[in-house]
Amino acid sequence: MPPSAPSHTTRPPTTVLRSRRLSVGLAAVALLVGSVATPTPASARPPTDALKIWVPTGDFASSSFERVAQVAPEPVPTGNDRQLSLATVRGGHASAQLAVASVQDLEELQVQVGPLKPIGKGGAISKAVQVRYPAYIPDDRGGMIADPLREVDRVDVPAGQAQPVWFTLAVPPDARPGTYHTRVTVTAHKVKAVEYDLTVNIADVTLPPVAERDFHLNLWFQPDTVAEQAGLELWSDQHFKAIRPYLEDLASRGQRVINSAIAEDPWPVLWPDGRWRSQTYVPYHSAVDWFHDGEQWSFDFANWDRLVEEGMRAGVGPYIHAFGLLMFRGYQHVVYTDTRTGQRVDQEVSLGGAEWKDAWSAFLVAFEDHVRDRGWLDRTYLAFDERPASEMQVAIDLVREVAPVFVDQIAIAGSASTDAFAQDLSLNYSDVDDWSQEMIDRRRAEGKKTTFYTWSNPAYPNTVTPAAPLGARVLSWLSAQRNLDGYLRWAYNSWPQDPYTDGSYRYRQGDEYLVYPGKDGPVSSIRWELFRDGQEDFALLDQLADRGGQDHPVRVAALAGVEPASAPGPAAYQALLDARAAVVEALAGYPTD
């Protein structure tokens, strides 16, 4: 999707690698999820009062909104206040962090949180707070930056370096509203423990289950990279098993679309050497096998069917988007097996030409028959990425001629110029100043979906690694402000060769992925956590609209009080917290269901 100039020229693999990445990738994961400092000699162990702990923003409620620099500040902004507080709703989350440092090496830093005990009647909530330790990875701008969230019991911290501690509060939907209390205990080897009091206020407001929320999330999952990172054969049983945790992670955030490649490498770009190659380190391989005998085309949908079935089983859906009728950036090619020779052929074709029409006419007819037989016809969309209206018209003309059922099942990420073609349209945030609110509102009235997307641009707000974390949270506020249905991002997991050691392949760091590869599934990131928190803000705003109308004065004031593009800082932090608190308070005034 991103049109920015390439920053690397390394040639990506043309097939999935099966062994080299297993040793390189998992070694990098092991390095980051294990202890990172060598044992400290007994004579150099820190004194018992060595722990220096601070709240990054000075306010625990907003502490997740910015990253902690790896080098500890001088002086460390510690204080005597050991009181922390968070506020959330039933079925909701809250993110927060502390930062820890010492003038000497710390061994086995560990932070533990007890069960939430109510002040008053009710039972305790056990395991409500998850603790993770953000890892520092190379920042492609220089230095190191905290992003992947290590799920380990304890970590070692080199002298003079900071270690963020990430807290994720998850409240069950049936929790009793009220005030809860627990202890946060920070320990390290041969160091006096430090304790904090954590107060959690749970409002008498309940978020609906993720699957029932009206937020159209469309993140492009790439199955190929999971196979490449784990050293597995593409489309093998082991590969499909490996992708399940990623699909389940997407479903847990409300992913509404099963994205798929129905043609080989639908995202080619022109590289500096003059050749067209995939924009991602690992190309998208077609989940449909194409065959040609010189006259007739045939197709094997077995792998595509299984990918769709895995997505549905994980809870992703209900929509299926199929990419490839138009390739990215204008270069068109058809990849197939010549059944006369057994050779794999990569043939360049011209858009609208005889060879292009012949191949895609055969495919569309077969594809319609296949999804009809599987009972998926009404949920399957032909999907396109940033193609101009002139090219879209050629594609639509062919669809109308050979498979007209899909004419009203078109999904496009791009510009408003393709409004007339798209039932599902995602607008480029780069063009936000040119968006027509009349068009957005009209499309909603017509029952069409309209979302927006970010890529490397803008620098903020965004989910790219260099952006302040608050930028990932406010994206959902923009959706609510503009009467949009949700958000699209071009890559959930299109990793470079090793995102732990070299964070970008072609575009800005983090543009290509929101999570990291792990041994048993996705490793979350600071960005991914903040985005979830923003989705919950959207759900609360939506809930208030359902209860009190779109023009409820508290909702209107909350939306006006958050400016997504404003510079991150204390004023922006407080504006968002105040806006959310006002919405929650207004919702609490309505009778519970």
UniProtKB/TrEMBL annotation:
Signal peptide: 1-44
Stretches that traverse the bilayer: none
Ranges where the Glycoside hydrolase 123 catalytic domain occurs: 220-542
UniProt entry keywords in alphabetical sequence: Signal
Pfam families: GH123_cat, Glyco_hydro_123_N_2
Keyword Magnesium among record annotations: no
Domain (Glycoside hydrolase 123 N-terminal): residue spans on this chain: 80-187
Domain of life of the source: Bacteria
Descriptive protein name: Uncharacterized protein
Species whose genome carries this gene: Micromonospora cremea
